[in-house]
Amino acid sequence: YGVAQCVRTVSAGGCRDCLMVAYGNVEGCPPGAEGRAVDAGCFMRYSDSAFFPANQTLDLAPFLTSGDILGVTELRGPTKFHYKDLKAATRNFSDENKLGEGGFGDVYKGILKNGTIVAVKKLAIGTKRVREDFESEVKLISNVHHRNLVRLIGCCNKGPDLLLVYEYMANSSLDKFSFGEKQGTLNWRQRFDIIVGMARGLAYLHDEFHVRIIHRDIKASNILLDDNFQPKIADFGLARLLPGDQSHLSTKFAGTLGYTAPEYAIHGQLSEKVDTYSYGVVVLEIISGRKSNDTKLEPLTQYLLEWAWKLYEEGMLMDLVDDTLDPDEYKAEEVIKVIEIALLCTQSAVVSRPTMSEVVVLLLSKARIELHPTRPTFIDATSRVRGDPSTSTASSSASNATVSVSQLSAR
Question: Could you say which protein family the record assigns here (predicted)?
Fold first, then answer.
């Protein structure tokens, strides 16, 4: 028995390409009795038993076209931890166990009683309203399951701090490998897989989960790497815990200088294309091995996005490629294609940017595709701000605790 499906927003060609990728992913499943492949825009499944009862005679086609509900998913909720257990796991939240300062608060390495290594985030916000909404919001986020999204294991809301427990990523974050102390250790295939994995994770948040989630702060430090250097997006889905009115998409700015789409940074206009823009900037960082805004460089090349557009117009995109990459590991046309996709994502016109589902299809398509990105009339104004591009800003009066957040909007 088998079934293959594409979402309605994917073109016929995109559906075909997506299903071919899904087919390749399930090829290794036999002789298993069940195999499934979920990608951005399509779904494929096979089984040695029927999907429906033997007496099933209902024709699903009319319901598929009319958009009726075919099923209901039960939200299970996260595991509840005791505060004293997480305090002991992190050695009383010691500085030696501190992994970093992510969105909403500090993150600590913890070892549970059963030996499982986890990452524990101590939220820096704990108002009465936040505590009231905490359990329902965390229940939603804990049901987001995708191989390219950091998994929320559980939480604790019974102690002096609100705590979130995530799966632990041994290889830390992408920024360490793109332009940090481990720069130059990733080969082209690893970088390409990270680029594709990021796109898949965002496509799931935007189009495949039953509630649309807009991240709003995609950057290299929010992309974690597992043991196999597969990317997992962190810090998504907690925007509604922020103080203030969150009933509209444009009520509060949360982003990072150098990564933020101009319509969001300047006008507060929020859509999933904000994540598309930031994704494009991160892709350029991965390929070039440098920050989006590096004040140590000469003015001509200081702003990565502006420099990339200049090289594109001059037909010299290969000058953007990281010198530490072995030229024998990649084909120039493949690298140029990925750079052009990144530039498509950073166009100033929101409607001109592809969706993340479309980005996945573009990246994986073997067909030759003519891409014609249009240079923005101006480059992201936030990149012109002097200072550390890793600094996130939520609002002029807000603290750093309100960064790296996401936005949920009902479908």
Answer: Belongs to the protein kinase superfamily.
